[in-house]
Amino acid sequence: MLRRTIIWTAVMCAAVGMSVVPATAQIVESVGERALGMGGAFVAVASDSSATWWNPAALADGPFFDLSIGRATEARDFGFPAGRDRVSGFALSTPVVGASFRRVALVSTAPVASIGQPAGGRENEGGQTALTAWSGSALGGTIVQTLFDGTHVGATLKYVRGAIRTGTAAPGSSPETAIDQAGDLDDGRAESQFDLDIGALATAGAVRLGVVVRNVRAASFGDGAFRLPRQARVGVAFSAEAAGGPPLTVSVDADLREYESGSGRRRVIAVGAEQWLAGKRLGLRAGARFNQAGHEERALTAGASIAIGRGSILEAHVVGGGSPAEQGWGTGVRVSF
After folding, report:
1. Among 110, 209, 304, 311, which is most buried by a count of CB atoms within 10 Å?
2. Please, what is the end-to-end C-alpha distance for the chain in angstroms?
3. pLDDT tens-digit profile of 264-299?
4. Between the ranges 12-26, 120-134, 151-165, 172-186, where is the mean pLDDT highest?
5. What is the DSSP track for 37-49?
């Protein structure tokens, strides 16, 4: 057991330390209504099928069966650059294995540099705006191994297929208008890559500690024009219910490394809470996240779950109230028993 723990720890530390070329890419806070309602402080909390994204090892503490279907949109507008992520798909899991399929559409904008042209700004003052769009899908399979009581490791192997498209928007376009024009870009050449997420989870009474490294290979597309950046995050959570109190969970997450997104560099600290009421038929969530890099934006989040039948749950989240530049929402349905 000790040997397995040492091997997995070494693998994850090496994955965090390896360097990659920064590139426009999807943010961590993209999947799962519970996670997004809690601001993204979910690495140590994940106990449903969204753990296939947030921390594969956490499936070990999940329900006998969990199926989630959802869609989320996140927009970040800082003038130039600006970005928008749209994710939809499903995930299903048991405490041993899981599977997921997600469709992703990412768009980012930046001004085309020219002599004497000012950088940034809400409008591009008649200059050209570069558009980069990546659309694709990811099919994942997750497996979990229990090292010893309360300590688990897991991995999600992903088959990613997508195409990158580039072009320019109409002169003088605002960031929102430029992003909307991405649908008019010519189709790019589709490529396929394999990548890997690995995670670990340790529980001790009411405390849970998790760590995940996403996109271990940092797979690239379009001759390196688009790359899935390596993302590493650690989280800690406290369950009042496990300590004999109410069904309340509070959590904190922190990125261990900086990475590029469509709207700039990110290294996030997130905090969140989840409270279940009415015999666990109603769940309420709130959270906040603070970017320590790039534009140093902040975001406030909220979410809710409502049980509509035996094992069937409707879920939603909103992002807003922090930096006006960052807004989002999502809805989903989950079947769990």
Report:
1. 110
2. 31
3. 899 999 999 999 999 999 999 999 999 999 989 999
4. 151-165
5. HTTT--TTT--ST
| Position 107, amino acid | V
Condensed to tens digits (0 to 9), the pLDDT of residues 7-26 reads 444 444 444 443 333 345 78
7 DSSP assignment = H
Please tell me whether the overall predicted TM-score, pTM, comes out greater than 0.85 for this model.
yes
**Burial, 265: exposed, middle or buried (Cβ in 10 Å; 0-12, 13-18, 19+)?**
middle
Classify burial at 126, counting beta carbons within 10 Å of its beta carbon; exposed 0-12, middle 13-18, buried 19 or more. exposed
Does the structure show a pLDDT above 90 at 232?
yes
Q: Please report, as a single letter, which amino acid is at residue 164.
A: I
How far apart are the C-alpha atoms of 147 and 134, rounded to whole Å? 38
Q: Tally the C-alpha atoms within 13 A of residue 254's C-alpha that lie toward its C-beta.
A: 4
pLDDT at 257: 96
Cα(307)–Cα(196) distance, integer angstroms: 33
Alpha helices, DSSP H only, in the chain?
2-17, 33-37, 51-54, 175-180
- CA atoms of 86 and 38, how far apart (whole Å): 19
* Residues 119/78, Cβ–Cβ less than 8 Å: no
Give the type of residue at 14: A
Residue whose structure tokens are 């519970």? 34
